[in-house]
């Protein structure tokens, strides 16, 4: 499985180290555990090209997705891919603990200052923490426990409500198969549920599953349904699945050897409370399964999920993870040019929420952030990114604990705003992007701090809107242009949005 290259301690001690990005760490764990067998390495140029062109590795093995590792060029500048003792890269977990070493047989610059590091990986330490680690059995250990001839794999990337439970029972019964539930835990699921919540909700349905083995797998979605489906099939096969139930997503066997089971559309039969094939229930007695968005909507509004659709224990987990919006944490993230009105609006919203007392609220005002959180940072692209990441991190923590976090940095880059949105989602909170879209001419006309004049005169460099870019958001949840409205009206637009969406109930005066 893993290669047997020799790794003397002194080589390891001198090797550079790097913490891969989350999806690369997930790939690493799958490589090390044997879930990606026969793959035991990060791919190099020949394999990457072959996967893209033909869906196979260079040696002809079917393989759907490029499993690659990109590392900043500086980190690997001392490596020499032609010398076995000088090409070891140590990979660490986010806390800096070494978990693996790569024998970097190929180092390929890929632009943006990164190098693709390709080569076999070897485990040098255990990842010991993380919720539900006990469910992370290796493929080999899992296969050992599976004694039936047929094993029905289920990729449970969403909670299991009664229709899904009925589908699994029906398929397991038809095949006389043991059930193998694989829970992807490498990131947010398709419903935006953090992994620990997804696992808890599946465990809450355990009693209603036929005889099952439950395993948490660091499988992540890469955004290409077909290739993701193929990879899932391969991983399911590695864990011992002979069949895979295609629930909600399309899977294909893709050389994995598993057989894909297509589900039948089931509906609830109001006469006796059974879930049956749609065509077997007369229309007056049929109740269709709820869609994920209907379920989210009910939770957002604080309605319980009905017993006919969701086992009470599952409903309780989901209610806890996704409380009604009036109780859920939210990051209100205002972005816009300097002088557009972000701080003025944020302060107004803050005061209004203090007045109603309904929510705990924190304001991360620009000046305060720059003084306390980001005092050493300037306005280069990298510094601005770091500034936004810090604000997003602290705001997400506030929202994780069910508070309202108001942020008002310029946040000129779409990537930083997207990261802030993702961090809030991972904290189980909502994220509202408010674009304060006041045009540059108006901001410059206001020039409250005289900075635009200085920027025009070349006294200040890299000034947003003048000599530094502002990427206009394409995904703002609310847009407020303050050029032709009064301050109170601008504040009112944000408050109305919060009231209409259910994040606050009391309308402040
Ligand atoms: N070069 C340059 N570009 C933009 N802005 C500058 C610059 N230098 C100083 N300032 C002042 O700093 C405030 C912006 O800080 P932010 O933390 O919001 O910026 S960023 O989000 O990190 O881009 C911004 O304050 P606001 O007017 O409150 O937005 C400016 O007054
Ligand atoms: N409708 C409005 N909403 C917000 N600010 C407004 C509005 N109309 C005029 N202004 C003025 O514009 C300026 C905006 O400054 P500020 O809130 O500090 O902007 P930013 O935080 O985006 O740099 C303030 O002087 C404010 O009084």
TrEMBL record:
Residues in ATP-sulfurylase PUA-like domain copies: 16-104
GO cellular component: cytoplasm
Keywords: ATP-binding, Kinase, Nucleotide-binding, Transferase
Catalytic activity: adenosine 5'-phosphosulfate + ATP = 3'-phosphoadenylyl sulfate + ADP + H(+)
Pathway: Sulfur metabolism; hydrogen sulfide biosynthesis; sulfite from sulfate: step 2/3
GO terms classed as biological process: sulfate assimilation via adenylyl sulfate reduction; sulfate assimilation, phosphoadenylyl sulfate reduction by phosphoadenylyl-sulfate reductase (thioredoxin)
Enzyme's top EC category: transferase
Residue intervals of the Sulphate adenylyltransferase catalytic domain: 134-271
EC number: 2.7.1.25
Domain APS kinase: from-to ranges: 328-481
GO molecular function, one term: adenylylsulfate kinase activity
Function: Catalyzes the synthesis of activated sulfate.
NCBIfam families, alphabetized: apsK, PRK03846.1
Protein name, per record: adenylyl-sulfate kinase
